[in-house]
Model the fold of this input.
Amino acid sequence: MTVLDLFKLTDKKALVTGGAKGIGRKINEGLLEAGVETLIFCGRGRHGSLEDEEKRLKEQWPSRDIRGIKCDINQESEIHSLIEQIKDIQSLEILVNNAGVTWAVPTLDQTMKSWKRAIDTNLTGTFFMCKNIIQELMLSNENGGSIINIASILALKGFAETPQIGYSASKSALLGLTRQLAIEFAIYGIRANVVCPGFIEGDSMAEIFTNEGSPIRETLIDMVPLRRFASSNDIKGIVTFLASDASAYITGQTIPLGGGVTVSL
Ligand SMILES: NC(=O)c1ccc[n+]([C@@H]2O[C@H](COP(=O)([O-])OP(=O)(O)OC[C@H]3O[C@@H](n4cnc5c(N)ncnc54)[C@H](OP(=O)(O)O)[C@@H]3O)[C@@H](O)[C@H]2O)c1
Done:
């Protein structure tokens, strides 16, 4: 097998949560470019139309099985319904838990409601998606599977500009969750890794910081040793790598995608 073959995802089936908007759309593209045969993506349909994204992807990859399905990951019943709707695929090799919400509230103004908002989606929803997909679509796979959780650089570093304590706590917890999944399910060939992106250029929850003209854009870029925000290619690259056999011996790892920010003073 050549090194380029190791990166191919031909014949594999993937599910991306939060796939109709922002980073999720780039992840969809990366997986399809690498060859996935079946791509399922989900969201609640509040931010980004599932139908529009499905149409866009099908125009570019007409021979692939591409389905946008409504699913609120906070509701376990909706996760069950999603799995029921895709049971014809029988197995899944790649799960990317990308759905997330950010909720910036000063720490001393946090209410139980605002705190739970971030925890429910970023942590609890991600866990129940992992649990159900492993149980129903991964455990029986002869070749196992790869789970990629999308956390944040705020799982590794504090950030004084916009206190997001619920977001930071929920994303930090994903690191432990991912390690535990990796250990428990390694025996089945299921790998789990977590990516911690810094700010990402483009249409996303970070646009307030990353837009040209934003007053703190240059300040933020100055904090990053590589002197730029992450691009869609950076996201596509790391997710595709972790989904592929090129990373077959990597599990339980936390991968910062921060342009060096985690190792600079
Ligand atoms: N953008 C950045 O700079 C950055 C940096 C570090 C980490 N991240 C992480 O990367 C991921 C994607 O970020 P993004 O900037 O692309 O965010 P985004 O543009 O706000 O998109 C988030 C996606 O998640 C979906 N979603 C939210 N709650 C959901 C739920 N309960 N069930 C199912 N889907 C849900 C949203 O769709 P619906 O609302 O329609 O459901 C949307 O498609 C997030 O986990 C985020 O924390 C982003």
Summary: Residues 3-253 form a domain with the Rossmann fold fold (CATH 3.40.50.720). The radius of gyration is 18 Å. The chain has a mean pLDDT of 93.
